[in-house]
Design brief:
Low-confidence stretches: none
Oligomer: single chain
Mean pLDDT: 84
């Protein structure tokens, strides 16, 4: 068993675990429970959530998958203005949060 990734972001660990499992790589997470105490104790990093690959022979394949994920282009969509109510809406949303008007593609 080898540690492959650590992060303070629970969702990131979960996403990467799902990516690896989809490729048939068995893995587990550690420290998720103790990491919930963040803020109650001084942060030293020793309890950040970790992702571990169970089979050593899967480590290189898992590392390649994570490297590809890490180098993938991150899309940062620009905010848009709702044509109905004029509200500014974050780019990842397809409907206005204020009036539920659908985003118009330009």
């Amino acid at each position: 068993m080898k540690q492959i990734y650590t992060s303070i972001k629970f969702a990131e660990i979960g996403l990467l675990k799902s990516l690896l499992e989809a490729e048939g790589i068995e893995c587990v997470t550690r420290n998720q429970e103790i990491a919930n105490t963040r803020g109650l104790v001084n942060h030293t990093g020793w309890y950040d959530p970790e992702l571990w690959v169970l089979q050593d022979e899967d480590f290189d394949k898992a590392n390649a998958i994570l490297a590809a994920w890490n180098s993938s282009e991150k899309v940062n969509l620009a905010p848009w203005i709702c044509p109905n109510c004029g509200e500014e809406v974050e780019g990842q949303y397809l409907r206005c949060w204020q009036c539920d008007t659908e985003k118009k593609e330009v």
